[in-house]
Description:
The protein has 596 residues and is an alpha/beta fold. The protein is 55% helix and 11% strand. The strands form four sheets. Strands 7-6-5-11-12 form a five-stranded parallel beta sheet, with helices on both faces. The protein has a four-stranded antiparallel beta sheet with strand order 1-2-4-3. Strand 9 (306-309) and strand 10 (317-321) form a beta hairpin. Helix 5 packs across helix 21, helix 8 (190-214) packs across helix 9 and helix 19 (473-492) packs across helix 22 (535-554). The longest helix is centred in the middle third of the chain and has 25 residues, at 190-214. The two termini are 41 Å apart.
Amino acid sequence: MNIQESIIAGIQLAFQNIFNADLSLDQLALAPTRKEFEGTYTFVVFPFLKISQTTPENTANQLGAYLKDNVAEVAGFNVVKGFLNLELNNQIWLGVFQQLFDNENFGQLPANGQKVMVEYSSPNTNKPLHLGHLRNNFLGYSVAEILKANGYEVIKSNLVNDRGIHICKSMVAYQHFGNSETPESSGLKGDHLAGKYYVLFDQEYKKQIAMLIASGQSEDEAKKTAPIILEAQEMLRQWEANDEEVVSLWKRMNEWVYAGFESTYERMGVDFDKFYYESDTYLLGKDIVEEGLSKGVFFKKENGSVWVDLTAEGLDEKLVLRGDGTSVYITQDMGTADLKYEDFKIDKSVYVVGNEQDYHFDVLYKIMRKLGRPYGDGLYHLSYGMVDLPSGKMKSREGTVVDADELMQEMVDTAESHTKELGKIEGFNPEQAAELYEMLGLGALKYFLLKVDPKKRMLFNPKESIEFQGNTGPFIQYSHARIASILRKASMIGVDYHAVDFSKVTKLEDSEAALIFILNDFEKKIELAGQEYSPSVLAQYLFDLSKEYNRFYADLPIFLENDEVILAFRVALSDLTAKTIKKGMSLLGINVPDRM
RNA sequence: GGCCCCAUAGUUCAACGGAUAGAAUGAGCGUUUCCUAAACGCUAGAUCCAAGUUCGAUUCUUGGUGGGGCUACCA
Length: 596
């Protein structure tokens, strides 16, 4: 039983003994005491005034007195209006600290026997990754790591959108303008090369539309009849008919793109256990349509198209199969959902996809539940908002897209110039320095994108993201480096903090108690972040921890202190803080340096 | 038109229905004989509007206003 639980149990008993009322444990909750008040935990008595039949102050005072006398953890209390603030004694803190210090698996909850798939990234293979993908990839990776820390077995998957009209556009443009160009001959990364032809297609398409309009066609007509778009559509048909030449070009260009993505993913620090390709899955799901019809979940219209009626669930009727028997998007998503289950027997499935598809996934999940899938209740759409630029929305056609590779490089370059400016790299060899810049640049970028509540639309200001001050990744990384410095110094002068006898520590400063309180909370924060699939909770926590530690550190007379036990205790506290930061940051996919 | 999401200091973000709404940044003023000043301290500044539920509402409900998204036999 932890401290909170035993206090709550004590409150339950207090209500029985004082007010003769039986309350269940889940009616009682503690909150952390706000820092401007004395105490560690606060119990709010307002909801229980009907039971106590007296004033808030009286109620709180009676409860507090009972807890102080009967619960070992409670050393004292104070009452402010209806708020009962409970103060814990130092020995309890030290016990908590000892537990944290002894726990080898700090930050890892026990296995819960559940399997979850996290699908993220899911790029199109016709152009390079951009800023929006970065938010997706960092979120997906981080959520997967947080779920692991929560005790899940996690499978990271990537559903690659490698077929369709958009790929054919790049291919058609390559046939027209490519001149056998390759990544090697052009010096471009494969994904950027494909992207170049996608842009060329669009330019040519626009040119043709303009000409057709000039010759008297309407805009809609022109868009449908421009020769190059017809060509792309024809190519898609050929691809589906397995035309040898088209398929071979498709394979070649996709290989380039995959090689490009691979290096981008590597630099991002994300990885996958399983790749799915739409070229393999786009025909799946038709059997489910049959199943749905026979189960009465779907119905057929006169023209043969198949629909699901979700009006009872507050949605519309949605098409699941066209009248000509061909698939729509949701058909293959139904099939892929089953495929994932067949492959891994997962209990839960998290889809990291932008919020413009909220409706689509709402429909998909409702269908799979209606069909009675065992994983139905475990389907979760981790929906995230768009990333805006100060100049407005990103639009690929207008060239306002921020390229992922370029952005990462820019962040690393800035880390380098900033670090050199501060003269912080004395004693680093070139490899170590490069590694540090990489850590700092990417840490800044990841933290910037992860600290915001995923569902909110966010603003990405390139200048601010490169800032290393304030609520940023580098601030937390810096805190870690400072602590590591203390630990080095401590071992140099021979402080053996592993052998501290905590029972000999008698006095706890406020800042130390605050740190222990925060550290004690770590596993709960992981759990919370896991339930909400929200790295932002964890990011905020790590920032708070770093800030608290920097305060502690700012006037830490550690090497002037004579009392050996206190000294060792403080070093041990630093060590634990460093471990927490390192663990927490690794759940966000961010590395922390020992020196910087 | 219908449905969904969002709205908090100048700005970017926080706040299980709880206390005087927190941080960061920007502005101003300070702090370095010593462990990393990429730090620390102090000062100024905000809940879109209106009702309702509640002992208590930034949070829940309803109605407005503003911003974004979805609303294809596209993916």
